[in-house]
Specification:
Chain lengths: 398, 157
């Protein structure tokens, strides 16, 4: 079942533009709200509301995408909602519209990610999914790299609001790419109505799902705060070139992901999932240790390349394992929602924990702690994660 | 049985709600007794005039500006951060500001205290008289600790 070239290319570009769209919604929202004279408490509240909405929406959004046959329509609705939330931020930076924007964006993101993964699965089937996900990650990281550079520049030189106008504008090429994916190429396998072990609780009883959810949480707990903390270290130590170095720290991991992700997907298909997980996750403790020891700002750029290695692993393996582990009941999107929730929990705790340790002790101690958590994640994958690749799936080449 | 239990819990809730009212009631009399300072303002007798309404000072739009959230430019003219707070001494005179400084796309932002004397206000823009290199390794501003404000560099020698 080989989908048409048009559908494959359109999916590539969809990933590229969606990554562009999502880039502005990171730490930059706090900067934008500061320029609108929001106090720190108000900004914290708005961002926490967004985080909470995201966490609460993960599983329900997964269920929703499972239940709907037309995955493209779900992606369409989600993209429109994200466009609306960007416009709300740019045009109406007062209390209620911003809160609405955060909630809307949170929910829409939780629908968008599983939808794209589900579209990928419907296009290429389980056998070729690893490599397809690798390609998704490649285009997404290229989009992220370009967007980080461009949006950082216009955020500094034009105005902070312009970043969100650009974000809204970039949803248009995303929608075009989405519509160009041909429906005839997609073979959606929906969960059966009364599937045996298709409920949330049944998923939770599956060892592979529990272990990987734990790994995903520990991974993000370790990974999420490393870049912000390193960024502050760069600003502190680097003087005039600080912004350039930080831009490089943002772009380099994306380029690494773009380079190696299809290879990661292929490796997972040919040699198995466990080896990929262990190799990729082990970059985290290494990076934590290096960040704790190294002070020179330019070296941080090299260390950020390790970020790319571990990020490529998670980005490719998360949807792949969701597909593997839901072979029997086809609850792919629900599983994606579960993993997304684990990632969200990890990310939320990570920044607070690292900030606390950094101010109580030192940034080096925070990096060491984050590295230690990364080590825990690697060990969990090494000792508790079952292999989910099936022998007969290894020979398909698409 | 059920209805009498419900009534008992209803009464308990009413009691809980009434407690603050009961507690608040004696408060005014205990406050007035030890007061030696000017007596609390009571409704003035009919013969005294009420206080006059507040006066109005019209300030033209272009002569004042808000500073919270305002962009601060560096020596080169590029925006380097935003003012997030103003620090005043016990008499209310501005001593310094807290600045959200640096960063790219929001990554790497630091909170620094800057002395008021290092800011220059001209024609609607606020300029910081220190370069990024001069602020290298400057300690971050933390609430609850002594504020370290960036000020003019010490003269050499």
């Amino acid at each position: 079942m080989i989908p048409s070239r048009r559908s494959r290319r359109s999916l590539d570009w969809l990933n590229f533009f969606v990554a562009d769209v999502q880039t502005g919604f990171g730490p930059f929202v706090a900067v934008y709200l500061t320029t609108q004279a929001w106090t720190e408490v108000q900004i914290g509240f708005a961002l926490s509301l967004g985080t909470l909405t995201t966490m609460l929406s993960q599983v329900p959004a997964g269920m929703l995408v499972d239940a709907v046959r037309d995955k493209r329509r779900m992606a369409l609705l989600a993209l429109s909602a994200i466009a609306l939330s960007a416009v709300l931020l740019a045009a109406f930076p007062s209390r209620l519209p911003v809160l609405a924007s955060e909630v809307l964006h949170g929910f829409a993101s939780c629908v968008l990610n599983p939808s794209i993964a589900a579209i990928s699965l419907a296009l290429v089937g389980r056998e070729a999914l690893g490599e397809r996900l690798g390609r998704n990650a490649r285009y997404a990281s290229l989009g992220g790299a370009v967007a980080a550079g461009v949006m950082g520049l216009i955020g500094t030189y034009v105005s902070p609001a312009s970043v969100f106008w650009l974000t809204a504008a970039l949803t248009l090429p995303s929608l075009v790419s989405l519509m160009r994916i041909r429906a005839e190429d997609m073979h959606v396998v929906r969960p059966q109505k009364k599937a045996v072990d298709g409920r949330l609780l049944d998923l939770l009883k599956e060892r592979g799902i529990l272990v990987f959810a734990g790994c995903a949480m520990l991974f993000t707990l370790s990974n999420a705060a490393m870049l912000p903390l390193a960024g502050v270290a760069v600003t502190r130590a680097a003087g005039e070139e600080a912004n350039l170095i930080i831009a490089a720290c943002l772009v380099v991991p994306q380029l690494v992901v773009a380079t190696i992700s299809p290879w990661v997907g292929r490796l997972a298909q040919q040699r198995g999932r466990r080896i990929v997980l262990i190799l990729g996750f082990s970059m985290l403790p290494l990076r934590g240790a290096l960040l704790a020891l190294v002070e020179e700002p330019y070296t941080l750029i090299l260390i950020q390349a390790l970020d790319g290695l571990s990020a490529a692993t998670l980005n490719v393996m998360l949807p792949l394992l969701a597909s593997d582990l839901t072979r029997r009941n086809n609850r792919f999107n629900l599983c994606m929602g579960l993993f997304g929730l684990a990632v969200g929990v990890g990310a939320t705790i990570s920044n607070s924990l690292a900030g606390l340790v950094s101010s109580l002790s030192s940034p080096a101690a925070a990096f060491a702690l984050l590295g230690g958590i990364g080590l825990l994640c690697t060990l969990l994958a090494a000792f508790a994660m079952p292999e989910t690749r099936l022998e007969h799936e290894q020979n398909d080449k698409h | 049985m059920m209805t009498s239990n419900r009534r008992m819990s209803d009464i308990r809730w009413l009691a809980l709600l009434a407690l603050p009212l009961v507690a608040a009631a004696p408060a005014p009399s205990t406050e007035e007794a030890p007061a030696e300072a000017p007596p609390p303002v009571e409704a003035p007798p009919a013969s005294e005039a009420p206080l006059p309404p507040a006066g109005r000072e019209i300030v033209p739009r272009d002569t004042v500006r808000r500073i919270l959230g305002a962009d601060v430019k560096g020596v080169s003219g590029m925006v380097v951060g935003q003012i997030v707070n103003v620090l005043v001494d016990t008499e209310g005179k501005a001593v310094g500001i807290v600045l959200d400084y640096g960063g790219f796309l929001g990554v790497g932002k630091r909170r620094l205290g800057v002395s008021w004397s290092m800011l220059s206000f001209n024609k609607g823009s606020i300029t910081l008289g220190l370069t990024r290199d001069q602020l290298k390794n400057f300690p971050e501003h933390r609430d609850g600790e002594d504020a370290v404000l960036a000020t003019a560099p010490a003269p050499p020698g």
